[in-house]
Amino acid sequence: MQYAKLGRTGLKVSRLCLGTMNFGATTDERESFRIMDAALDAGVSFFDTANVYGGQGHRGQTEEIIGRWFAQGGGRREKVVLATKVYGGMEQPLDGPNDTGGLSAYKIRRHLEASLRRLGTDHVELYQMHHVDRTAPWEELWEAFEVLVHQGKIGYVGSSNFAGWHLVEAQAEASKRNFLGLVSEQHKYSLICRLPELEVLPAAQALGIGVIAWSPLAGGLLGGGAFKPDKGARSDTDGMRQTAQKYRTQLESFDGLCRELGQDMANVALAWTLVHPAMAAPIIGPRTVGQLNGALSVVDLQLSPETLQQIDGIFPGPGGAAPQAYAW
């Protein structure tokens, strides 16, 4: 496994991030344990979860599964760089009107305390805002996060689904407080979703924010099962099948290129995300140990300039980096 520093911090994370959203939803606890054990054995030490993940009507179940895995000991907790999130409602009646999507000092404190209980730990390395809250003042949010850092309950703060200008605004406000601010941005990014190349990725790179790509296989479309998805896979829905038809010609061309390279589509698509200098790690969301093992070679897969040019021809970018894409 290869490792890189997360943004401008000194924290090193594995170049693949284990996504746990399937745990409890489509992957049972026993297989979830096997996946996490296999990930650690392979050097994948960066785990991502969220307080809202879990089976239907059981938000928080994924964190509970991870907590029971940690409780087995053997250095499991100590070896993991753990990231979780806050934003969505948690089906907690006692929170009243605050049990809805959004951020506040009240919510950040309460939801972190609940996450730590479910995870069976006294801290998380990375605490991420699952979405931007355009109504919450940064003075309130940064003060809340500063307190948690000083208490040792979180190590760093990250964001998810922020626009480029949100990253700039957040960092400007953090700088006023002499606070480190954001160290990561978790963003939807794949060959099918290259819009972040216009502003989010350049902004993150300039600000020293490490990007964590979610859905790097576009919900499974780039994983080779676009037209015959596995039962239970994210691509096994009517909407995703329609999207597969929309990109059918490109996916078939990409499949042909990958066959020439002697590589799986999924591995080439993941390796492509690692090429961007702002990228810390793409998130892999295996539902089985076999799927995890299939992705481990990605970090060693080097795509030549010629191959990258061919991929650009199949999946064109959004038109150039900002500001060149907007002006001469």
Characterization of this structure:
This protein has twelve helices and ten strands. The chain has 328 residues and is α/β, with parallel strands linked by helices. 41% of the residues are buried. It is 38% helix and 15% strand. It has a single domain (3-223, 258-314), classed as TIM Barrel (Alpha-Beta Barrel).
CATH superfamily: NADP-dependent oxidoreductase domain
The count of helical stretches stands at 12
Q: Shape from CA axes?
A: globular
> Helicity level, as a percent range?
25-40%
Number of domains: 1
DSSP strand (E) fraction? 5-15%
From the alpha carbons, calculate the radius of gyration and give it in angstroms: 19 Å
CATH class: Alpha Beta
Distance between the termini: 42 Å
Could you list some keywords that capture this structure?
single chain, 328 residues, alpha/beta, TIM Barrel, eight-stranded parallel barrel, two-stranded antiparallel sheet, 12 helices, 10 strands
Short note summarizing the structure:
This protein has 328 residues and is an alpha/beta fold. It has helices at residues 29-41, 61-70, 76-79, 105-119, 138-151, 164-176, 200-207, 238-246, 248-261, 265-273, 289-295, 305-314, and strands spanning 3-5, 12-14, 17-19, 46-48, 81-86, 124-129, 154-160, 182-188, 210-214, 279-284. The chain has a single domain (3-223, 258-314), classed as TIM Barrel (Alpha-Beta Barrel), CATH 3.20.20.100.
